[in-house]
Give the backbone structure.
Amino acid sequence: MDPAVARRHHCPVEFDIAYLDCNRCTFRRVTLVKIYHHESGHVSGSSLFAWDMVRRPVGYSDLDT
């Protein structure tokens, strides 16, 4: 299979346009996640990226930058 064709089939925004160059594509998919924490209280800043945080995707949006 032609690599350009294969790349279009895995496009995150599901475009199947032959002339579209994935490296120059202006579309980006933003995934929204909900963060679960075993302790009660507010979590912010760098603690959002701690190993003990559980992140679950809740949706996504495709943006044309």
